[in-house]
Design brief:
single chain; 251 residues; alpha/beta; eight-stranded mixed sheet; 7 helices
Length: 251
């Protein structure tokens, strides 16, 4: 049965990437028009819809999503979303299911050019692009987005592992980016999130995408940044995310 599913994954992956490419090409001019003519709100809506469409497209390969939100999402406060990172497919569910709190991203510089829709949003939608070979530039940009969410009561997603885990096993959290966010957004709430199983969509690389993968996302209780020691706060967040991952991980 596994062999049959693997063979079938090839034509269904071709279909998915055809739809994915169409969505990228369609929403690139759409979001440009939205931002230039109608401003931030319209642009954000176009980005939300694009990512919602990506989730629908992933159903073509049998992918399903469970996004469990613990309590209510915070309102009118800056939010630092801290998540483990397993694949590029972590991003669309985070944007779609957390759209009420306007998630922005700390992304590597390379993603800021050459990718229709995605590069434009990263450059002009409130996210920041960092050069991972230049720690000073990276710290400066992270401080910039921390001030941005503090001013506008929006949210930023950070993957403190630094790069995605290709096997689902978490990597040790890097502290500098989190500490910079905490120091520059002292009124923020931290929203820890555990991502499970999205690595399976890329177990063969980008192609083919395995059929019938279930992606699980779970938010954890909010934590105030104010009056907390950054080191102990990071330890608490990492322990929360990793414990949930080890409890519910499936092979």
């Amino acid at each position: 049965m596994k062999q049959v599913l693997h063979i079938l994954s090839y034509p269904f992956s071709v279909l998915f990437f055809l739809v994915f490419g169409i969505l990228l090409l369609f929403f690139d001019p759409v979001q440009r028009i939205c931002l230039r003519l109608f401003g931030y709100g319209a642009h954000k809506k176009s980005v939300d819809i694009f990512n919602g469409c990506l989730l629908l497209a992933l159903h073509l390969v049998g992918a399903t999503f469970r996004f469990k939100i613990e309590g209510e999402l915070p309102k009118d406060v800056p939010v630092i979303i801290v998540s483990n990172h397993q694949s590029m497919w972590d991003i669309p569910p985070l944007i779609w299911f957390l759209r009420k709190i306007h998630p922005k991203f700390i992304s590597k510089m390379e993603l800021g050019k050459g990718i229709p829709t995605i590069s434009y949003n990263l450059k002009y939608g409130g996210s920041v692009l960092i050069d991972r070979k230049d720690p000073l530039q990276a710290t400066r940009e992270i401080a910039k987005i921390a001030s941005y969410i503090e001013e506008h009561n929006r949210s930023v997603v950070i993957f403190p592992e630094g790069t995605r885990s290709r096997t689902g096993h978490p990597k040790e959290f890097k502290r500098k980016g989190l500490e910079t966010l905490f120091n520059n957004a002292p009124n923020a709430m931290v929203l820890p999130i555990t991502v499970n199983n999205s690595w399976k969509l890329q177990r063969h690389g980008l192609f083919p995408i395995p059929l019938f993968t279930r992606l699980d996302f779970r938010t954890h209780p909010l934590i105030e940044v104010k009056d907390r020691n950054p080191s102990s706060l990071i330890e608490q967040i990492e322990e929360t995310i990793v414990d949930e991952l080890s409890t519910n991980s499936t092979n």
